[in-house]
Amino acid sequence: MRFNGERQVQAEVEHVWAGLHDREVLRRAIPGCEELVPVAPGRYAATLAARVGPVADTYRGDFSIDDGQSGSRLCVRIGGCGRFGRLEVDLDVSLVRHRTGCTLLRYDAHAEVGGMVARLGNATLTVAGGHLTGCFFRDLDRALRHASRAGRVAALV
C-alpha cells in the first residue's frame, strides 16, 4: 500500500527536525508506541500496539531514522512482527518552511502487511493507514508543543 500527502505542523522547521530525532517526541507521536529503546544513533527497538478492524496486536521490531538531507529530508523504516502478522513501512519525509512558525511535511510511505492482518483487505488497511497517519501528525504537533514548553526541543536545535 502507498500513502502520500502533506501536513502542517505549527513549529519552525528546525524544531520539527529536532523533534523527529528526539526519542520522547517520537514516543508521544507514534500511534500505539509503548516502548522506544535506543540501540544506536537513529535506531530503536520498538513496541507498538495497533488495532485494525477486529484485529488487535502488539508489534515488536525496529524503528530507524536516516537523514537523507540534514534539516530537510529524512527516511524512516519500521519493521515489526506480532502474533497476527508483520508490518513493514518505508517512509520518506521532506520538511519545508511553509510560513513563519509553520512547517509543511510532505510524506510518501510504502507499507506492507502480512499474516492475518493482510486478510482484512486493502480498503480496511487504507482507512486504518490514513487514520494512523493523521494521528501521527496531530500527536507530533502536540508533542512538539509539549517539548517546546519544557525547553527540550529548543535545546536540541
Keywords:
Alpha-D-Glucose-1,6-Bisphosphate, Chain A, domain 4; 157 residues; alpha+beta
Task: Give a structural overview.
This protein has 4 helices and 7 strands, in the order βααββββββαα. With 157 residues, the chain is an alpha+beta fold. It has one domain (2-156): 2-Layer Sandwich (Alpha-D-Glucose-1,6-Bisphosphate, Chain A, domain 4), CATH 3.30.530. Helix 2 crosses helix 3 (122-149). It is globular. The protein starts with a strand and ends with a helix. The model has no long low-confidence stretch (mean pLDDT 87).
In terms of topology, how is this protein built?
Blueprint: E1 2-9, H1 13-19, H2 23-29, E2 33-40, E3 43-52, E4 55-69, E5 73-82, E6 85-99, E7 102-115, H3 122-149, H4 152-156
The percentage of residues in β strands lies in: over 45%
- The coarse silhouette is globular
Strand order, main sheet: write it out: 1-7-6-5-4-3-2
CATH superfamily: START domain
